[in-house]
Amino acid sequence: MPETYDTVRSILTSAFRVPEDEIRPQLTLGQLDLDSLALTELVLILHERLGVRIGNEDLSRGTTLAQVVDRLDALRAGSTSAVAPS
Q1: Is 28 helix (H, G, I), strand (E, B) or coil?
Q2: Between the CA of residue 59 and those of 1, 17, 80, what are the distances in Å?
Q3: Where are the domains of the chain?
Q4: What is the rounded distance in angstroms from the CA atom of residue 61 to the CA atom of residue 48?
Q5: Structural contact between residues 72 and 45, judged by C-beta atoms closer than 8 angstroms
Q6: Which of 45, 14, 16, 44 is nearest to 29 (CA)?
Q7: pLDDT tens-place string over residues 51-71
Q8: Residue among 35, 61, 63, 59 nearest 47 (CA)
Q9: Which of these, 86, 59, 61, 85, lies nearest to 72 by C-alpha position?
Q10: How many CA atoms lie within 13 A of 58 on its CB side?
Q11: CA separation (Å) from 38 to 42, 58, 72?
């Protein structure tokens, strides 16, 4: 989780200008001020940076950062049942 969390935190600070000191695992994406367009962009950036396909349905404004990281780690570990169709 630490590597994935650091990557997601880096994306949030660089692409979405979320102050690093405001990012905590228990916060939802909505609490980090990500709207639906930002969530779609986040999906694309995560695919590009981590090489995994996470579906838009996996990210909502109510999803916590910890849940995002857990989902990404599951996908990276090869849990093909979680891969969204291309």
Answers
A1: strand
A2: 17, 19, 18
A3: 2-82
A4: 21
A5: no
A6: 16
A7: 888 887 788 999 999 999 999
A8: 59
A9: 59
A10: 24
A11: 6, 14, 18
Q: What is the pLDDT of residues 3-55, one digit of tens each?
A: 999 999 999 999 999 999 999 999 999 999 999 999 999 999 999 999 888 88
Superfamily of chain region 2-82: ACP-like (1.10.1200.10)
The model's confidence at residue 85, banded by pLDDT at 50, 70 and 90, is: very low
Judged against a pLDDT cut of 60, whether residue 79 lies above it is answered with no
- Between CA 40 and CA 14 the distance in angstroms is 16
